[in-house]
Amino acid sequence: MRLLLKHWGMSAIIFACPDKGPEHDKWRAWNMKIVIVGAGRVGYAIAEQLLTEGHDITVVESDPERAAYISSTLDVIVVEGRANVDQLRIANVADADLLIAATTSDETNLIISSFAYHEQVPKIVTKVDEDNFIELAESYGLTTIIQPADVTA
């Protein structure tokens, strides 16, 4: 088993992937339904990379201009609006294999991830910038936490 580190600017995501054999092929062939909340520089780059691997991506973005740009440049479903419960339901978070909370707000990322946890999304990745939110994230049951300062240190 190896960890694939995908690095985008100040953030990164770590994926566990078998080195070879049938599990490697199955992992690579699996077409995941992925919801990315927050499509700034990090979210956009993640969506772009995951598209090359053949996954179905839905992006939730609150900025109308950014949402329009994403819609015109990437083959993804774009849900425009604030990441509230209604928008997350429109994005079909409950049917996702992976949710990535990558907004600029730690608080928003924790709320989104907590919602996904309660919707039983199998894999949740939460971007957290401030140290004091790590323990809170773990108390929510979130185990895949990315802290840009740790990645770049």
Account of the protein in words:
- The protein is an alpha/beta fold.
- Helices cover 39% and strands 27% of the residues.
- The chain has helices spanning 22-29, 41-52, 64-73, 85-90, 106-118, 134-139, 148-152; strands at 2-8, 11-17, 33-37, 56-61, 77-80, 98-101, 123-127, 144-146.
- Strands 5-4-3-6-7-8 form a six-stranded parallel β-sheet, sandwiched between helices. A two-stranded antiparallel ribbon has the order 1-2.
- Helix 3 (64-73) links the parallel strand 4 (56-61) and strand 5.
- The longest helix is centred in the C-terminal third of the chain and has 13 residues, at 106-118.
- The relative contact order is 0.15.
Task: Lay out the secondary structure.
Layout: E1 2-8, E2 11-17, H1 22-29, E3 33-37, H2 41-52, E4 56-61, H3 64-73, E5 77-80, H4 85-90, E6 98-101, H5 106-118, E7 123-127, H6 134-139, E8 144-146, H7 148-152
Parallel strand pairs: 3-4, 3-6, 4-5, 6-7, 7-8
Antiparallel strand pairs: 1-2
DSSP strand content:
25-35%
Provide the low-confidence segments as ranges: 1-18
- The shape, in one word, is globular
Helix content: 25-40%
Q: Spell out the helices and strands N to C.
A: EEHEHEHEHEHEHEH
CA radius of gyration is 15 Å
Placed side by side, the strands forming the largest sheet appear as 5-4-3-6-7-8
